[in-house]
Amino acid sequence: MTVENGQPYGTESSELRKMVFASLFAAMIAAGAYMKIPLPFSPVPVTLQVLFVFLAGAILKSKWGTLSVLVYALLGIAGLPVFAGGASGIGVLFGPTGGYITGFVLAAFIIGFLSEKSGKSGFFSNALFMGTGLLVIYAFGLTQLCLVAKFDPWQAVSLGLLPFLPGDLLKLAAAAYIASRYRI
Question: How far apart are CA 67 and CA 116, in angstroms?
């Protein structure tokens, strides 16, 4: 291995590669927001964002996975229409569904952190880490539904978790499979 400027040769290209993938995942999370199915009984729509948050954490790990989700959130705050259904602005973060976006950031970090610490990247370990991340997303999302939409805890669970659980578990299984097959 050749050393250049005190760093192993190739380190810069590895960091550049991660930066490019972090940008790509931010774009995929935004694209997942446009794949929206509104539910008439809930303020929370079905989207593919969770799938890409899972993948960002598992593939990019804690630092770059979290940065990719933060870039996504900051783009939305800055006014780009990247939130569910093309919404944007800081008001979305303070609205009934903003807790889910906040949960995305922490979930990507936790998934990446658990993956780094365990050193495992198989289907079942990824599914476990992503399941932990999903619990974080739900915790933040349901808390904000209670605070902003004035739902009691049971209403929040019945309108902000139960209708989404089957689909989110399918997304989790797909993401765990993909992440177990792919490394950057």
Answer: 16
Cβ(139)–Cβ(181) under 8 Å?
A: no
pTM here is 0.91
Residue 162 C-alpha from the chain's centroid: 19
Other residues' Cβ atoms within 10 Å of the Cβ of residue 62: 18
Domains annotated for the chain, with CATH where assigned, are 8-181 (1.10.1760.20)
Long-range Cβ contacts of 93-96 (<8 Å, 24+ apart) = 94/148, 95/148, 96/43, 96/44, 96/144, 96/145, 96/148, 96/149
Both tokens assigned to 89? 């602005």
Note the pLDDT tens digit of each residue in 147-178.
999 999 999 999 999 999 999 999 999 999 99
Angle 181-69-129 from CA coordinates, rounded to 5°: 45
pLDDT in tens, 53-106: 999 999 999 999 999 999 999 999 999 999 998 999 999 999 999 999 999 999
Give bridge partners of residue 83 from the DSSP assignment.
87
